[in-house]
Amino acid sequence: MICFSSQAESVRVHCKPMPPFSNGSARFPPRSWPPPVCTDALLLGAAGFLEGKRATTHATALNELTPYCATVVQDRIVDEGNVVTAGGVASSIDLGLHIVERLAGPEARARIATQMAYPY
Q1: Of the listed 3, 15, 38, 69, which one is catalytic?
Q2: Digitized pLDDT (tens) for each residue of the chain, 120 residues in all
């Protein structure tokens, strides 16, 4: 999942305390793109980043994502503008190419995918 802002003071996932988030300036500065993939969506959902949004995660954790977002989608990439989530670890290539396309356009994405011999 890609976040552009932070809302949470602290996060608890599976009863383990997480470090505090500081109004988006330390962990998620505006327009930064931390590269979350797979079940990282659960952490960011617990922090409030997915509220009212569609999101995805690893197929085995889709039910766990339900309380944190408006709609759980079983896709490799879900782009909600300021939040992008990716499915399982294998979708990390798709996520990277998606980010390239958003930042540099479809030609850059196609060039990189070709260099990687990635046909999707």
Answers
A1: 38
A2: 344 444 444 443 343 444 454 444 344 445 555 657 788 899 889 988 899 999 999 999 999 999 999 999 999 999 988 889 999 889 999 999 998 998 899 999 999 999 999 988
Round to whole Å and give the CA distance between 52 and 67.
11
3 is catalytic: no
Roughly how many angstroms between the first and final C-alpha of the chain, as a whole number? Answer: 20
Full-model pTM? 0.70
Pairing verdict, β 12-13 and 16-17: antiparallel
